[in-house]
Specification:
This is Flagella basal body P-ring formation protein FlgA. Keywords: Cell projection, Cilium, Flagellum, Signal. This protein is α+β, with helices and mostly antiparallel strands. The chain contains four helices and eight strands. The strands form two sheets. A five-stranded mixed β-barrel has the order 4-5-6-7-8. Strand 2 and strand 3 form a beta hairpin. The longest helix has 13 residues.
């Protein structure tokens, strides 16, 4: 009996202690990422210049012990790159409706509620249908459009005034 207690005590004493972050949650708080992007862009989710959507709640990102690193991705500044600088960290791209500077500089090519042509284009084909813009935006911006009042909205890129394109790869 004493041998069993001794072995159990020895095994317990040599087991590695769980890190403090693993005790609370092994995953990073996705709401904290949304807050960081809002602070970085200066605009809330769905607002002009802010993230178009919240971070997908199905993601399971490893908990990050260091402060997140945020920066604009690309020259158009319509995506925020969020990185965990820890060793073996992760990175995440968050779509925005453009930077505040870009929103102020570029006049909208399409206004909310405006009739548009929605073109679905792929390798060797193109199909077009009339629709309605659900958001305003400048050339190159991604907006939501729909083909009818009951249709599910699509995300399309503004090609020129009156024309949006849904690329199919």
């Amino acid at each position: 009996m004493t041998t069993t207690r001794f072995l159990a005590a020895a095994l317990f004493a040599t087991a590695p202690a769980a890190p403090a972050s693993a005790q609370s949650s092994p995953f990073h708080d996705l709401v904290a990422i949304d807050r960081a992007v809002t602070a970085f862009t200066g605009a809330g989710i769905g607002e002009p210049g802010g993230a178009t959507l919240p971070v997908d709640r199905r993601l399971r990102l490893a908990a990050c012990r260091s402060p997140l690193s945020l920066d604009w991705q690309g020259s158009r500044q319509d995506t925020v790159l969020v990185q965990c600088p820890d060793a073996g960290g992760w990175r995440l791209f968050v779509a925005t409706s453009g930077s505040a500077r870009q929103m102020a500089a570029a006049p909208p090519a399409i206004a909310r509620g405006e009739a548009v042509t929605i073109s679905v284009a792929g390798d060797g084909f193109s199909v077009a249908q009339s629709g309605e813009a659900m958001e305003s935006g400048a050339v190159g911006a991604w907006i939501r459009v729909r083909t009818s009042a009951r249709a599910t909205p699509l995300r399309a890129r503004i090609e020129r005034p009156g024309l949006v394109v849904v690329p199919v790869d």
